[in-house]
Design goal:
The chain is α/β, with parallel strands linked by helices. The chain is 46% helix and 19% strand. It has eight helices and nine strands. The strands form two sheets. It has a seven-stranded parallel sheet with strand order 3-2-1-4-7-8-9, sandwiched between helices. A two-stranded antiparallel ribbon has the order 5-6. It binds nicotinamide-adenine-dinucleotide.
Length: 253
């Protein structure tokens, strides 16, 4: 798919990797539907995309809410006239150990609320957005559609992240399943599993803590949001790619 003039929805595009994805694809000529919960952040992303000469609009919705997601895709098609791509990027963490014992006694456990909130956004949100995007692409009869799920290196198992690791393994598997189901409608899929990416959150860490993260990476540097956008661009542009997950982690795993 040539991204020029294509309509792409990016969830969680208010900041971080999502903003990096939105602006990089805008630089390739894509029109961007910016989806997030934060109005001010979305406005900044929309302005950055517009400065690159493309149309961009903000949509404040919760990706875990079925009715809001259904409305989102109808509005996007109304506003832009089409839909060619979706990047499921919105995500949260609520880290904690499965169980923690102190002096032989149970001290803490991951709460159902901790588990459920991450599953709701990171897994159910991806399911809902992927489903609604596929419906619109099929109804519109687009020549080619692309759906990308942002997974994580945590998909291989991650200390203190029972909820997050399960969701991130899940979204890689959704990409694989959808590749099989949606190929007949000319929809390709893919997932990207970032390692540690240099977002505002990491920039704000204490230098020693940040250095520890860097030292764990074979390439001895953190990834940039651009590196994730490059992987997404590869998935969009390569029409023999579908269903696989691109680990983009500097060799971290
Ligand atoms: N930063 C990393 O190192 C890293 C590594 C691996 C994977 N990831 C994944 O990449 C994605 C983006 O990460 P990031 O570091 O940019 O995160 P971030 O927290 O900086 O940005 C996430 C964005 O998603 C939005 N969001 C959260 N819940 C939402 C909801 N229910 N509905 C709509 N929007 C919602 C937030 O408002 C925020 O703007 C996430 O899926 C994350 O799990 C990040």
């Amino acid at each position: 798919m040539d991204l020029n003039n294509k309509v792409v929805v990016v969830t969680g595009a208010g900041r971080g990797i999502g903003r990096g994805l939105a602006t990089y694809l805008a630089g390739k000529g894509a029109k961007i539907a910016v989806v997030d919960l934060n109005d001010a952040d979305m406005e900044a992303t929309v302005k950055e995309c517009e400065a690159l000469g493309v149309e961009a609009r903000a949509y404040r919705i919760n990706v875990a809410n079925e009715a809001e997601v259904e409305q989102l895709f109808s509005r996007v098609v109304q506003d832009f006239g089409s839909l060619h791509g979706l990047i499921n990027n919105a995500g949260i963490t609520r880290d904690g150990l499965l169980v923690k014992f102190v002096d032989g006694k149970l001290d803490k456990k991951m709460t159902l609320q901790q588990w459920q909130s991450v599953i709701d956004v990171n897994l159910t949100g991806v399911f809902l957005c992927g489903r609604e995007a596929a419906i619109k692409m099929i109804e519109l009869g687009v020549e080619e559609g692309v759906i990308i799920n942002i997974s994580s290196v945590a998909r291989y198992g991650s200390f203190g992240q029972t909820n997050y690791a399960a969701a991130k393994a899940g979204v890689a598997t959704l990409a694989e399943t959808w590749a099989k189901e949606l190929a007949r409608y000319n929809i390709r899929t893919g997932a990207i599993a970032p390692g540690t990416i240099n977002t505002d959150m990491i920039a704000a860490m204490k230098p020693e803590a940040r250095e520890r993260l860097v030292q764990a990476v074979p390439l001895r540097r953190l990834g940039e949001t651009r590196n994730i956008a490059q992987a997404a661009t590869f998935i969009f542009e390569n029409d023999y790619f579908t269903g696989r997950c691109i680990d983009t982690d500097g060799g971290l795993r």
